[in-house]
């Protein structure tokens, strides 16, 4: 099926064609016009040159990425080849829930011009597979028929939110790759992934330069400081940024970007382009064109960023001195966000967008003035062309902004649905798999597309959820859908205060916030956030006794991260959850991860192999995966390979996997893991302490949330009691719930205050904590009580805590005579003994031993005597 | 056997007597749930209220019903479910899944009314969890999971099933009620701590605090014929005789002994069942003799009948073993020792019993071994000659003596030997 040669099968060698056309001394780069790819076993070399459309190796061999080659350069060592690209996406790479936006069936050979600010546009030159032919088709025209299957068609533009008509200017025929018309440059550059997220990346260029971002990334920032902020400070910077954003909208955002070194990046790009065009004027023009660099910045910035230019206030994004807590507060605010607020933000954005066009016009004369100073014809030419392009662009952006806003409004659904996203996701998956079917059909017709890639990359640019489309589609059931039949009558709502309190106190009710876990929340939040922003991977181990809110806190973190991702504050990521208890075998973990990631079914071995490949293969457009592994200790196997893999994947260069693990014991890594596993887990650990009574009290109060159902003392009693025993919040809530029931029953009789008081709580506590052995003994029959007495008598005689039935039976008969009862025979005695054994008042051996079965007491002798005496 | 008995009687005479007998038998065989559980009112209310909340409000719950065997756990649950299903709003809204220890998860998915599909255990589990996860509190039908013999589920690997069911009950998924029935008081200690944390710790204990007077009332109620019995004359007569029977001293004694043995109704029912079965057309009322006979059958020692059928030689061997037990204080013995003891008896005291060849004695000994009246001390490892293999007597002193008393035509010298302090 696969027609594309990949590295796995054949070795390709890459060579520069000709001499470098330009050089950047500062960045120690040499620019080239074309590159030849020679494949082992083939005589003729393929050549790719600037402006040509090329295929890039992806996660999937059958369905490589498509892009237009913009730049080729090498670093000073000459070994590393980097390509700057304009991406195109296939339909299968568009998220399933967005595909409906197209409004028609996609042509099998159709691709879309990809416009995403957050997408990385530099790849390793050695991932280029070869050239491909792309044709631009105007929007109104039908797709040409009878063309070669290798040709791909571009009709529309995909900006991660909607499909829009593609400006033909953006698409230049690639027949003259050597010297593409300069006018095409502007729009292309503009459409390149632009700085908003990259601004943040620059802010922590230290990480970036380590190159863990993507394939063979050679970012311009390499020339910049390596000494910059640590990951955490970057995270702080971002949270600070978000904080200010939430407070004052886009205005503040501008300031932050100002200080970030995004300028360098864009200037650099422009330089490269200029060099491409005018190779003869390389070095001299470079210095002079630096003012033009400014122009291109404004071109490249998307509306919001452009606006930022205005503000010159020195407040920097590197000011993490604000207290961390505010970030948390902000999250709360975000969580409580209402539809109206969301609309507001959209509305806020609009003026900003409108301002853009004007601004550009303002900018451009200045720029031309600047260039004219340089008195160079070439520079003038370039700048005038850019100017022309700018005008064009201004109109276009206006259009785009409309589209975006409309889309925003449409896509928004009240947050309630967001919470249920898990089930919706499944629906999506269904649709996905059906799309696959279609894709498969088309496969035969030539455009090779692979299902795997469909799934993998389809999820990448997940933006605002447009879930409204998903459930509406009628589809034929292919599998048995796991579901519970729905009830005929709706569930009744709580009627009175006590019922209301009970509903709120149920462990399953999702609280608005998690009190008493702020610090833990913040730590986990920072950890995950920094990893997501960096696009790196990492592990974290969370421990704590049951019922201390470990899983709840992690879910809370993910929820708020997903919210900020929806608002484009951080890159998108996927969240996957597995639970050691919810699988029959540790190796099933692979199967479940794979299924949740790509909706594929596979055997454990195969799934492990696929995941291995996925996490080690370089893929420029991959999004971060956050994996929660609950009940980690159950994934233990003798060779520990499941745990090993889980912790090893995040360390891979291209994995972008964050693993959060949860277990009960603090020293689990030391106790059950062999060294190489424990070492990979790392030292990022956190332990959840059992709740103190004050915290428990606070939890109950916050859950009750002004529903007055408990007396203060009663609450304190419960929380103190539970804190002394286990600190388990679940227990605490259960007791309170039971107390409301008791109150309800007694309230009807006594007509008391209606609040849950001390007596009710005491009763509930007694029910839950008191041992039932004593009442069991008291309620036992006469013979059973006698037998217990005989057991104790025999123990006393022997001085041991164990006796055979025969010995006890002799005592039993003697006691019967003392009590004036007819002595039981052996069969009766055994029956009595067995009955006590089945209640576990006695511990017995197997009954086949008959007379010689050994008996032990499961209760203390004192308890037995106490129970019998009180009788 | 009981059914056949009933059939035979039916064929013999078809009358009111048989009808009454049939009715009582049905009652005693638990074929029908009682109208109201006896002495379990508070537990009944508690459980009903709990399940009602699950069915009506969609509140997830978990509860354990703990009580000794025969204390009426299943009966209580049956009554509660009957009442629950009679509620209009619960009727169509509840799915019931009953699980026994042996049932596979596959059956569980089946009984939830899903399409049954062939798949591995892992797939089934994933499927079930997915299904439960998709539901929510307000719209999906509550599912009641009844786990009979709850303690045995705790022995499953990792307690996966319990963890998952209880986890669903503690999270915002399909409303479920997990009902566990068990007779073990220490069942919570069997649960792993994370499973235990998810359990609501709600336990309903069924301990009968019945007094003997109440017990007698129950007996009377169980034996009485209902007022809507077709033949009022017969039913009056019958009920009168039952009242008289309960006042009888011997009957009371028997019932008290039964009551002392165990308070549960299961043993009472088996006693009454035997008594009721003895009623026939010739004597159409329940007499005290019937009850005495039934008691005799029920309380008989299981080994007494075996001893009754032994030969004199075998009985002698048992007496010899008893003496060995006395002398060596319960230490195990071998055939050779028993044979020596037996030879001493023959030589010194015996008049009636002739000398037996050793192989004959050996044969008798092996017969005892087969009857498991003697049992080898567990040492199958090293091969020892059969004569020297260590054995234990599986009889209590009293059982031997009683058997001797009852043995028909037992020689007096054997009896004396058994009674004598030394071999």
Automatic annotation (TrEMBL), chain A:
Compositional bias annotation for Low complexity: 467-482
Source organism phylogeny: Eukaryota, Metazoa, Chordata, Craniata, Vertebrata
Name of this protein: Origin recognition complex subunit 1
Alphabetized GO MF terms: ATP binding; ATP hydrolysis activity; chromatin binding; DNA replication origin binding; metal ion binding
GO CC terms, sorted: nuclear origin of replication recognition complex
Keyword Nucleus: yes
Annotated Basic and acidic residues bias: 319-347
Biological processes annotated in GO: DNA replication initiation; mitotic DNA replication checkpoint signaling
Pfam families: AAA, AAA_lid_10, BAH, WHD_Cdc6
Record-annotated BAH domain positions: 46-169
Keywords: ATP-binding, DNA replication, DNA-binding, Magnesium, Metal-binding, Nucleotide-binding, Nucleus, Phosphoprotein
From TrEMBL, chain B:
GO cellular component terms, A-Z: nuclear origin of replication recognition complex
Single annotated GO MF: DNA replication origin binding
Major subcellular site: nucleus
A matching Pfam family: ORC4_C
GO biological process: DNA replication initiation
Keywords: DNA replication, DNA-binding, Nucleus
Keyword Nucleus recorded: yes
Coiled-coil stretches: none
Protein purpose: Component of the origin recognition complex (ORC) that binds origins of replication.
Protein name (Swiss-Prot/TrEMBL): Origin recognition complex subunit 4
Species whose genome carries this gene: Cyprinus carpio
């Amino acid at each position: 099926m696969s027609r594309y040669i990949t590295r796995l099968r054949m070795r390709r060698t890459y060579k520069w064609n000709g001499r470098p056309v330009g050089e950047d001394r500062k960045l120690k780069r040499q620019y080239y016009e074309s590159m030849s790819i020679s494949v082992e076993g083939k005589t003729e070399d393929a050549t790719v040159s600037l402006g040509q459309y090329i295929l890039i190796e992806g996660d999937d061999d059958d369905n490589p990425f498509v892009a237009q080659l913009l730049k080729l350069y090498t670093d000073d060592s000459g070994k590393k080849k980097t390509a700057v690209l304009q991406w195109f996406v296939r339909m299968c790479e568009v998220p399933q829930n967005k595909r409906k936006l197209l409004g028609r069936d996609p042509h099998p050979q159709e691709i879309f011009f990809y416009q995403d600010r957050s997408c990385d546009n530099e790849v390793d030159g050695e991932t280029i597979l070869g050239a491909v032919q792309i044709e631009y088709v105007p929007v109104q025209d039908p797709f040409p028929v009878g063309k070669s299957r290798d040709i791909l068609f571009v009709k529309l533009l995909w900006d991660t939110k909607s499909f829009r008509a593609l400006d033909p200017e953006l698409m230049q025929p690639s027949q003259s790759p050597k010297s593409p018309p300069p006018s095409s440059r502007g729009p292309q550059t503009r459409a390149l992934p632009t700085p908003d997220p990259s601004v943040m990346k620059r802010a922590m260029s230290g990480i970036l330069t380590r190159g863990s971002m993507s394939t063979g990334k050679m970012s311009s920032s390499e020339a910049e400081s390596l000494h910059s902020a640590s990951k955490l400070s970057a995270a702080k910077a971002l949270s600070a940024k978000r904080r200010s954003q939430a407070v004052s909208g886009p205005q503040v955002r501008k300031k932050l970007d100002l200080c970030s070194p995004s300028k360098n990046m864009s200037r650099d790009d422009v330089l490269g382009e200029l060099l491409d065009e005018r190779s003869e004027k390389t070095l001299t023009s470079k210095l002079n064109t630096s003012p033009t660099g400014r122009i291109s910045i404004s071109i490249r910035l998307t509306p919001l960023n452009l606006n930022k230019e205005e503000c010159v206030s020195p407040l920097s994004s590197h000011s993490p001195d604000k207290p961390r807590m505010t970030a948390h507060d902000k999250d709360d605010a975000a969580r409580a966000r209402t539809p109206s607020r969301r609309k507001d933000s959209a509305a806020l954005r609009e003026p900003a967008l409108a301002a853009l066009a004007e601004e550009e016009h303002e900018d451009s004369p200045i720029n031309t003035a600047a260039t004219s100073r340089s008195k160079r014809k070439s520079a003038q030419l370039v700048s005038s062309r850019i100017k022309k392009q700018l005008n064009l662009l201004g109109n276009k952006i206006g259009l785009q902004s409309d589209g975006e806003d409309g889309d925003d409004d449409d896509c928004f659904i009240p947050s309630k649905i967001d919470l249920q996203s898990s089930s919706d996701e499944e629906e999506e998956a269904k649709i996905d798999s059906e799309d696959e079917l279609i894709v498969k059909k088309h496969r035969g017709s030539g455009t090779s597309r692979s299902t795997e890639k469909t799934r993998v990359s389809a999820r990448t640019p997940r933006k605002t959820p447009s879930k409204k489309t998903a459930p509406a589609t009628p589809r034929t059931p292919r599998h048995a859908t796991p579901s519970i039949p729905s009830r005929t009558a709706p569930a009744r709502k709580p009627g009175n205060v006590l019922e209301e309190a009970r509903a709120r106190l149920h462990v399953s009710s999702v609280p608005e916030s998690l009190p008493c876990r702020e610090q833990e929340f913040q730590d986990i939040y920072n950890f995950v956030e920094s990893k997501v922003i960096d696009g790196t991977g990492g592990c974290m181990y969370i421990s704590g006794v049951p019922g201390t809110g470990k899983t709840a806190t992690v879910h809370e973190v993910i929820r708020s991260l997903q919210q900020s991702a929806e608002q484009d504050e951080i890159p998108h990521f996927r969240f996957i959850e597995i639970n050691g208890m919810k699988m029959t075998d540790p190796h099933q973990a692979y199967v479940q991860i794979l299924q949740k990631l790509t909706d594929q079914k596979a055997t454990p071995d195969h799934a492990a192999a696929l995941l291995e490949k996925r996490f080690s293969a370089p893929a420029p457009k991959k999004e971060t995966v956050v994996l929660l592994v609950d009940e980690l200790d159950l994934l233990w196997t003798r060779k520990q390979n499941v745990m090993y893999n889980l912790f090893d994947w995040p360390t891979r260069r291209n994995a972008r996997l964050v693993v959060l693990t949860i277990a009960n014991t603090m020293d689990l890594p030391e106790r059950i893991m062999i060294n190489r596993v424990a070492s990979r887990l790392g030292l990022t650990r956190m332990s959840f302490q059992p709740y103190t009574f004050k915290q428990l009290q606070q939890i109950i109060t916050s859950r009750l949330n002004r529903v007055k159902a408990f007396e203060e003392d009663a609450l304190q009693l419960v929380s103190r009691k539970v804190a002394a025993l286990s600190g388990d919040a679940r227990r605490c809530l259960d007791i309170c719930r039971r107390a409301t029931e008791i109150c309800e029953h007694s309230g009807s009789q006594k007509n008391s205050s209606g609040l849950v008081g001390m007596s009710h709580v005491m009763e509930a506590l007694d029910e839950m904590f008191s041992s039932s052995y004593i009442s069991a003994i008291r309620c036992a029959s006469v013979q059973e009580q006698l037998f217990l007495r005989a057991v104790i008598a025999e123990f006393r005689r022997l001085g041991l805590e164990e006796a055979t039935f025969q010995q006890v039976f002799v005592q039993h008969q003697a006691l019967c005579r003392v009590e004036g009862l007819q002595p039981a025979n052996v069969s009766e005695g055994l029956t009595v003994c067995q009955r006590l054994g089945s209640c576990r008042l006695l511990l017995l051996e197997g009954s086949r031993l008959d007379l010689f079965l050994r008996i032990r007491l499961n209760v203390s002798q004192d308890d037995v005597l106490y129970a019998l005496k009180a009788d | 056997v009981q059914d056949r008995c009933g059939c035979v009687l039916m064929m013999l005479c078809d009358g009111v007597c048989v009808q009454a007998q049939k009715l009582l038998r049905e009652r005693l065989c638990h074929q029908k749930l009682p109208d109201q559980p006896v002495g379990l009112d508070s537990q009944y209310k508690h459980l009903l209220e709990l399940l009602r909340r699950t069915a009506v409000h969609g509140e997830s719950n978990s509860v354990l019903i703990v009580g000794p065997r025969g204390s009426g756990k299943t009966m209580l649950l049956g009554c509660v479910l009957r009442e629950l299903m009679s509620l209009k709003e619960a009727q169509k809204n509840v799915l019931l899944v009953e699980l026994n220890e042996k049932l596979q998860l596959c059956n569980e998915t089946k009984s939830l009314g899903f399409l049954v599909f062939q798949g591995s255990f892992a797939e089934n589990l994933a499927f079930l969890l997915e299904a439960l996860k998709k539901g929510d509190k307000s719209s999906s039908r509550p599912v009641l999971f009844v786990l009979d013999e709850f303690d045995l589920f705790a022995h499953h690997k990792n307690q996966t099933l319990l963890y998952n069911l209880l986890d669903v009950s503690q999270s915002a998924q399909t409303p479920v009620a997990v009902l566990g029935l068990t007779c073990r008081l220490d069942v919570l200690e069997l649960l792993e701590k994370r499973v235990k944390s998810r359990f609501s710790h709600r336990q309903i204990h069924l301990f009968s605090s019945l007094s003997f007077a109440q017990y007698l009332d129950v007996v009377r109620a169980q034996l009485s014929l209902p007022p809507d019995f077709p033949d009022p004359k017969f039913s009056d007569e019958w009920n009168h005789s039952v009242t008289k029977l309960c006042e009888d001293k011997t009957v009371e004694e028997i019932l008290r002994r039964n009551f002392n043995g165990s308070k549960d109704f299961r043993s009472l029912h088996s006693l009454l069942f035997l008594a009721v079965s003895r009623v026939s057309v010739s004597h159409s009322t329940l007499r005290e003799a019937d009850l005495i006979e039934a008691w005799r059958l029920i309380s008989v020692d299981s080994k007494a009948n075996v001893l009754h059928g032994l030969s004199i030689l075998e009985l002698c061997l048992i007496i010899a073993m008893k003496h060995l037990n006395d002398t060596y204080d319960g230490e195990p013995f071998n055939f050779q020792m028993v044979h020596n003891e037996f030879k001493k008896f023959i030589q010194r005291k015996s008049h009636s019993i002739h000398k037996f060849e050793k192989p004959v004695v050996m044969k008798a000994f092996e017969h005892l071994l087969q009857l498991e009246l003697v049992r080898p001390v567990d040492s199958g490892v090293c091969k020892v000659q059969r004569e020297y293999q260590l054995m234990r007597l599986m009889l209590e002193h009293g059982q031997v003596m009683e058997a001797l008393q009852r043995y028909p035509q037992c020689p007096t010298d054997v009896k004396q030997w058994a009674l004598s302090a030394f071999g």
